[in-house]
Amino acid sequence: MKLNTDLTKKVNAFFEQSRWSSSPIKEVKRKMLERDGGEIAIATTIVRYEPNSYFTSHIHDGGEEFLVLDGEFADEHGRYPIGTYMRNPPGTSHTPSVEPGCMILVKLGQFQEGDTQPVHIDTQQHLFVKDEARTGVAIQPLHSFKHEVVRLERWEQDSTIMLENTGGIEILVIEGAYDHDGVHYTKHDWLRLPIGEKLNAKAGHTGCIVWIKTGHHFHQLNHAAVSGGIL
């Protein structure tokens, strides 16, 4: 399966307008954002675990990155409440076991060679810091490696948000809403901009919090054959 694999094109996905699709586990549903492969794939997906969901043990050949959007994720290594950001490097494995149910944004098979640092951040326990270079923006750093940078950004209400794009931009709305190029994005909507297309957003009346990744298209374009993962 190939879905939104052309990184030279702008793509978006709207949470409320899309349907849940099945996975190999009955209690686990997903909304695919980008995908290259079958059940083992390089992928970006919103995944919903129903209460008392269990997923088979699996190895992250190309690494796994996820953010808990709702509920509480869990595996044999721990419990991860809403707002938890995780990076499980290539070669790691786990067996998800989710009693209360949850929803996560998960990216598979997209780690750069040499990016082996595990990350576990409870973003609810960390503060945003003002971005001195951009008016109306506060940031919470999550991860960086070479040219790839992952963070949360909080945009003040009605602020204009500019960001140059030298290596790709990917955004998921966590809270609030914004507009870009005349299109309205609200909670859990997703936008991916190709290299060179800068972000020119207008935050909504209540402001906006987004998960944002930049710079990652360089290695994705150069290493399109990286091993993926399951989900």
Automatic annotation (TrEMBL):
Transmembrane segment boundaries: none
Residues covered by the ChrR-like cupin domain: 13-112
Family annotation (InterPro entries): ChrR-like_cupin_dom, RmlC-like_jellyroll, RmlC_Cupin_sf
Pfam (any one): Cupin_7
Taxonomy, superkingdom: Bacteria
This protein's name: Anti-sigma factor
Biological source species: Photobacterium frigidiphilum
